[in-house]
Amino acid sequence: MSIFNPSDIERFLLWKGAIAAWWQHPIFGWGWANFLQAFRANRGVDYIDSPAINGMQNSMQNDAHNIFLQILVTTGLAGFSIFIYFLYNVFRFLEVNKDVSPYHRVVRACAYSLFVGAQFEPISFSCWLLIAMLIGSIA
Amino acid sequence: MNWMLAMAALCVINPWGTDVFVLPKVVFAIIVLSLDDAYPYSELDNPLFVAMLALACFTITSNDIVHSLIGYEIQAFSGFLQMLVCVMAYEASNLRRQKLSEIILTCSVPMIMWACLQGVGYWQTIWKGRAYSTQGGPVFLSMILGMIAPMAFQSEKEDRRWALAYICLWSAAMYSAGSRIGWLMAGIGVWML
């Protein structure tokens, strides 16, 4: 396990392709779960030739590996605005209530942890569900 | 039976995962969940809630079937319903909170043990030597372990002996997964405690 590896280059190129895809449909995006098509139409040759992909034309990528880019590409600025509003309220709630009990601090820590992870990898349903339960339990 | 805690347990154990440990994990889940019989949910009287819960459970347990039958859009939508169900179902209660943490940490133990077995070579891995789990590949294993790290470190202040053993095994599982994101998530989470 090293600090940098070939998948980092792939991830940067993935983000680059995601931004290009969003720019084609900036307001309402490509639609839920259509990242695969959006990215395939906008990925560059440098992505195909990157070490991790190694020229595989049929390489599938259905997630931007960044929650903000994922929301932007699939739902555009319209969905992105709603998502930011949602995030703002969730984290404001967590910050306001962080000193209520040690458990509140744990939930806040878990939420920040997932938020950071969401900047680099897709989040599984299980993680979303668990964090929703945790936040719901202090709501 | 506390259904929301059951869902939390199933999230971590996921007995419908595509691996050979299905039966032991179902049994383990039933044992864990049978310990919890004290907190009935009034929401179960609500037909809308029950319908959404059923949809959420279906989505969690059979992603592949959902994909093939009704497509990605419905699956994505039901993912939001999962979150909505959970947020709706929870009310403030210290007992319930404590139980939720216990369930999540307890149910992660078999997943961690399995990862450790892969790490020391007693179980064949399919991810180039990196440990995986019923949650998916090494990255997903690492992420869910990273996310629950604050719970483990918080419990270290309350039940030190158990928590230290857990954290040792947790570290071994994280190392076996060989993913950097989980360590980053754990670091952020513990720092934010």
Structure write-up:
The complex is a heterodimer of chains A (139) and B (193). Helix content of chain A is 65%, strand content 0%. With 139 residues, chain A is mainly alpha-helical. In chain A, helix 1 (6-24) packs across helix 2 (35-42). Chain B is mainly alpha-helical and 193 residues long. Helices cover 73% and strands 0% of the residues of chain B. In chain B, helix 2 (22-34) packs antiparallel against helix 5, helix 3 crosses helix 4 and helix 6 packs antiparallel against helix 7 (160-177). Chain B is globular. The two termini of chain B are 31 Å apart. At the A-B interface, helix 5 and helix 6 of A face helix 1, helix 3, helix 4, helix 5 and helix 6 of B.
What's a concise summary of this model?
Chain A is 65% helix and 0% strand.
Features:
heterodimer, A: 139 residues, mainly alpha, 0% strand, B: 193 residues
Strand proportion of chain A, as a percent range, falls in under 5%
Number of helices of chain B: 8
Radius of gyration of chain A: 17 Å
Q: What's the story with the biggest beta sheet of chain A?
A: none
N→C terminal distance of chain B: 31 Å
Describe the secondary structure blueprint for this structure:
The complex is a heterodimer of chains A (about 140) and B (about 190).
Chain A: H1 6-24, H2 35-42, H3 45-48, H4 67-96, H5 102-117, H6 125-138
Chain B: H1 3-13, H2 22-34, H3 47-61, H4 63-89, H5 94-119, H6 138-155, H7 160-177, H8 180-192
